[in-house]
Amino acid sequence: MYRRDFPHHPGMHNMDLGGDSHTRVSYRNNPNFCERIGRSLVAVLVGIAVIIVAVCLLWWNEGRAVTTARSLEEGLDRVVSLGTIHVAFDQNNGKLVHLTGPLKTGKVLSDSAYGVSVRAVKLKRHVEMYQWVEHEHRREVNEGDKTREEVTYSYSKEWKSEVIQSSSFDNPTRHHNPNSMAVKPNVFIAEDAQVGNFYLSENLKSKITNYKQLKPQHPPPDGSVKLVDGVFYHANDPFNPQIGDIKVTFEYAGVSSGDSARAPDMVSVVARQQGSQLTKYQTEAGDVLEILYLGELTAEEIFEKEHAQNNIFTWLLRLAGWFVMFVGFGLSTSIINTLVDWIPIVRELVGLGMCTLNMTMSMSLSITVIALGWIRYRPWFGFSILACAMIPVLLSKYRVSSLNSRDRRL
Prior knowledge:
By secondary structure, this protein is α+β, with helices and mostly antiparallel strands. The chain contains eight helices and 20 strands. The chain folds into two domains: 38-97 and 298-410, no CATH class; 107-255, no CATH class. Strands 1, 2, 7, 8, 9, 12, 13, 14 and 15 form a nine-stranded antiparallel beta sheet that branches. The protein has a five-stranded mixed beta barrel with strand order 4-10-11-17-16. A two-stranded antiparallel sheet has the order 5-6. Helix 2 (33-78) packs antiparallel against helix 4, helix 2 runs antiparallel to helix 5 (334-340) and helix 6 runs antiparallel to helix 7 (379-388).
C-alpha cells in the first residue's frame, strides 16, 4: 500500500488538485470483530427506540387525521355562506361563515430605503450577498485493516440569502466572508387587510403567499445603490460582483383594490365572524378552522380541498412512519449480519433475507398501528385494516412453504 510504504509523504495528506480546491487524506483503523459486535449491540438498542418513535408517530397521525376529518365534516355542516360582504350582520356573530371577494387594504405598503411601494397585503424584501461557498466531496477506500478517507474541498462564489461563516471552512484564509449583511431582509404586512367590510386575522393574512416579483423602474434615493433590470445592487460594478456585495429584490402578495396597475386578488374565506373580524373557529371535534384560499370557491369546494390536503398529509406521515420503522428493524437485526459478514456468500444471502424480514415486520406493524388508531372511531374499518396487516406475514409464510416444497421434490 502507498501509505504503508511511504508513511511520511506529504502529498498523501494534502493534495492540491489545481484551481480553487484541495484534498485532505486521513486513515483510520477498521474495527475488529469484537468492536463490530459492540456497535451492533448499541444499534439494537437504538433500533428499539426508533421503532417506538415510529409507532408513536403513526398512532398520533391516525388520531390527527380522524380529528381533522371530523372537524371538517362539522364545519361543512355548520358553515353559513354570506349573501353580502359589505355588511356584518349581528346574527352571524360567533358562527362559522364563508365569504368570497376582492382583497382591500387601507394603506400602500412601501420601503422608503429603496423608494418601492405597492398596494398589497405583503411586500417582501429579499436580500442576497455574494459569498464564498465551500463544497465537500468524500471518498473512502478500504485497504484491509485501514480505511483511507479522501475529502476534497472546492470553493465557488455565489449569491446566498444567508450568511455563510467562512471561519468553519477548511481553508478560511483565502476564502473570507463578511460576518453579517449590511441590509436585512424584511416582510411588510398591511395592518388592515379586508374582504368587503370584514377584517382578516393575522393567521388568515399569513396564508396569502402568492408572491410575484416586483420590478421597480425608478432609482433609489441612495445614489450609491444601482438599479439593474429591477434589482438593486450595493456594488461598484453589478456585472462584476465582489465578495460582500449585496443585491436586493422585491416581491408582493395579495394585490389590493385600488391598485391601478393590477387587478385585485380574489379570496375565499371560512372563519368565525366576530363583529367585523374574521378569526379562528373552534370545532367540537377538536380542530380550529381558519381557512383562506385564493380565487372564488364555494364552501363545498373549500372543504373538499381541505379533505384532500388532510389525506395527502396523512399518507405522507404513514410512509414516513413505515420508513422509520423499517430503519428501526434494520438496526435491531444488524447484529445478525455482523455475525456472518466474514463469510462472503452467506453474508449476501443473510442480508437479503433480513431485508425481506424487516420489510415484512415493518409493514405488518405499521398497518396494525394504523388499524388500532381507527378502531376507536370506526370499528369495522379498523378491523378491516387489521386483517390486512396479516397479508405480508401470510405471503412470506406462503413463499417459504413453496420453497420448502420445491426443495423436497428435488
